[in-house]
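Annotated sample (chain length 236).
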Amino acid sequence: MQDSKRDIEGRTLNDERVKRSPVSLIDFEDVYLSYNGKVLFNDLSFKVGKGEKVILAGRSGIGKSTLFSLILGFVTPERGMVFFDGEPVDEKNVWQIRRRVAFIDQDVSIGRGRVNEWFDFVLSLKANSSLRRDERGLRESFEYFELEGDILEKDINELSGGERQRIAVVTSIILGRKVFLLDEVTASLDGHMKEKLAWFFCSRSDWTVVVISHDSVWLENPNVKVFDLEGKRWKQ
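Output written by the structure step:
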C-alpha cells in the first residue's frame, strides 16, 4: 500500500487538493488497492448519496471491511480517490470525517467499568464537549432496544455480545451521528432484535447507512440498495 495521494489519473497530489461537488456523501473513483500481493479493488467506482441505505454484497475475503477502512482514512488507495461529502479522504480532514461517522462491528469494544461510566466517558471527550447527556433520549433508546434500566450499573465485562452491540448503537445516537458504517452489527442478536435494529436504521431518512451483513433482514426494507463488489454494479 502506498501513502501518497493520487488523483484518478495516477498523478501525485501536492498542495492543490482535488474536490468534488457534494452531490453524494461517499464517492469512490477508480480505486485500486492490493494487499500482500492480492488485488482487492481494481478501478472500483460507486457513490452513496446522502440518506441512502446501502448493503455491500460479496463473498468473504473480497474486501468489504477494507472498504470501511478506506472511508475512515485508515487505509490509502494506491490509485484513485475516495471522497466524503465532496472532500478527499486524506490526513487534512480525516479526523473531521471520523467525528461524523459511527463505525460499529460485530466485535465491538466499549471500554471497561460500568455502562453508566462509559456514557459519561464518551461525553467527556473534547470532541463531544458541546453535547449534554440526554436522560430522556437515553431512556427511550434503552426501551426500544429492550435494554433493562439497571444495565447502567452493570459492568461492561458482564454484558453479552448482543448487549454490547446495542450499547454501541445507543452511544452513536447520543453522539448525534448521522452516518453509519455497520459491519455484521446484527450477528449477536436474535431474530426479533435483528428486525428492530434494521428497521430503526432504515427508517431514518436523514441517516446514511452502509451495511456489511449476511442477514437477509436488511433486504426486507424497500429503501435498501445493494452494491455488488465483485461485479462492481448495483443490483436490481
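Annotation: Residues 161-174 form the longest helix (14 residues).
Annotation: Residues 26-222 form a domain with the Rossmann fold fold (CATH 3.40.50.300).
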